Amino acid sequence: MPRSRATERLRHLALAALYFALLTPAGLCARAVRDPLRRSWDRSRTTYLDRPAGPRHPVATSRRAP
User: What is the DSSP letter of 37?
Assistant: First the structure.
């Protein structure tokens, strides 16, 4: 039996209500407890630029023997 447009709209509305009622507050609470991106300022740092860990080596290419 095919679903009517009203049933599809009601289903989308129910899913949106569930999302905003459960997942949004959970995400806001998680962000209030910790900062996942570590965006807070650290006054003891002189720069926030991450330097490479070591020297970069060129990528070896495979060559055929003559």
Answer: T
Question: Residue 66: how many CA atoms within 13 Å on its side-chain side?
Answer: 0
CA angle 58, 63, 64 (to 5 degrees): 175
Interatomic CA distance for residues 66 and 62, integer angstroms: 13
Q: Which amino acid is at 59?
A: V
The pLDDT tens digits along the chain (66 residues) read 677 898 999 999 999 999 999 999 998 898 888 877 777 788 888 887 877 777 766 666 666 655
pTM of the predicted structure, to 2 decimals: 0.44
CA distance 37 to 48: 13
